[in-house]
Specification:
Length: about 100
């Protein structure tokens, strides 16, 4: 079993967006706020850049879905990085 250093709790917003109850910009804002609250945020340039892009998406009334998908994939890549032993990873992104 993987040991996660952090957890990004985004389940509620993810489910609301999936159900059509939350817009993509609102979801991006929620995800950015949660990611900004992670202890790694102030010192991690990669996470800082991802949060910045999510915040930019949040300000766009009609963001391009491919743009969001690219940024979300970057977040998953950041979260999946190994930080210590072979079974220690950066961040679990809880969407379910």
């Amino acid at each position: 079993m993987t040991n996660w250093k952090y957890t990004l709790e985004i389940k509620d917003a993810w489910q609301q967006t999936k159900a059509g109850e939350m817009t993509l910009p609102a979801f991006a804002a929620a995800a950015a706020a949660k990611a900004r609250a992670l202890p790694a945020y102030p010192d991690d340039d990669d996470l800082f850049g991802i949060v910045d892009e999510l915040e930019t998406i949040a300000r766009d009334p009609e963001p391009d879905v491919e743009w969001f998908d690219r940024v979300w994939n970057e977040l998953y890549d950041w979260a999946d990085q190994v930080v210590g032993g072979w079974n220690d990873k950066m961040c679990w992104i809880r969407t379910f």
